[in-house]
User: Fold this.
Amino acid sequence: MKIVVAPNAFKDSLGAAEAAEAISRGIKSVAPEAATVSVPIADGGDGLFNVFHSAFGGEIVTQTVAGPLGEPREAQYLLIPESGTAVIEMARASGLALLKPEERNARIATTLGTGELIRAALARGATHIIVGIGGSATNDGGVGFASALGVAFTDAAGRAVRPMGEDLGKIRKIDLSGRQFDPGKIIFEAVCDVDNPLCGPRGAAAVYGPQKGASPADVEFLDAGLANLAAHVKEYLGLDLADRPGTGAAGGLGFGLAAFAGASLRPGVEVVLDMVGIDKELADADLAITAEGRVDFQTAFGKGPAGVGGRAKKLGVPCLAIAGGVAGDISNLHGIGIDACFSLCPGPISLEEAMKNAAPLLAAAAAQAFRAFLAGRRRGRDAGGRS
Assistant:
């Protein structure tokens, strides 16, 4: 029996490779003879950097940049000199995980540091920039990133607008004349972990603003600011992008990369699944098991487990998911290929305890999920054998 183990990272707890090892250990505790194939994945959020480094090597470069609240932070990007490629996780410079819960403030968080990482990579000769845009603390529409690369945003009085969500509504003019790169010579790819548009009820502020510290009033204010940014991008650049899937990723950084760098917006999980060759592994598999820190209705919007489930479904392979937390109605996941979902928590435990013991809890949950799969398989065989 062959089981493909393809988890995403568990934020602040387990890397994708560590999660795969724990799941495999749980399966082996039930069926030592089972063949498990580990395929760690990422979806544009945390883990993209590590997946590319494992696949292609390269140099890990450390740079001091502005953090999500403008504070100096050290962040890394991956430079692959042979191909002129730089891989950047925006979460390393502008990520939600860099802030304590009480520090989260979507109105003032900025992607400036992400732009500074890109600027550093361009200075090292990178001509292909791949930006993973998940796990953000921001809602600035990519204005921070663009400002770091010379794009100017000014208000009605001609004054520079601060690169943060709070000032998006003040933008009246956009000037690309100081842009520090030629978009005709640099390839940008924005690797998204969601497919949300920029504005509206499924937009960056409405769906993801609350987890970044935004109140209902903040959400309305930030959404209006993003709409104002989109209107002036259309006016000054002739680009109507706000409804494009993925522009709402990372607080609108997807929009900013498309507007100011000509980036293509690609579903991160699809990029990674192709790179790691998951279809080849699934072709003769009996089961796929995927995992992530949290599974909820948003998982269907381009998250890693949804990608694995979709590939498994196309190949007729059952797929189970394990999560640190399973929240709300997840019935939308069943139609896209995740047949069942299990929590790694054995009962009411604190988040701190779950994160501290994530590996053994994940192994135990995998063992139980695998037992359920085997029981169903036996039942099917028994039913098939009856006259």
Notes: The mean pLDDT is 92. The CA atoms of residues 1 and 63 lie 46 Å apart. The two ends are 27 Å apart (CA to CA). The chain has two domains: 2-39+287-385, 48-269.
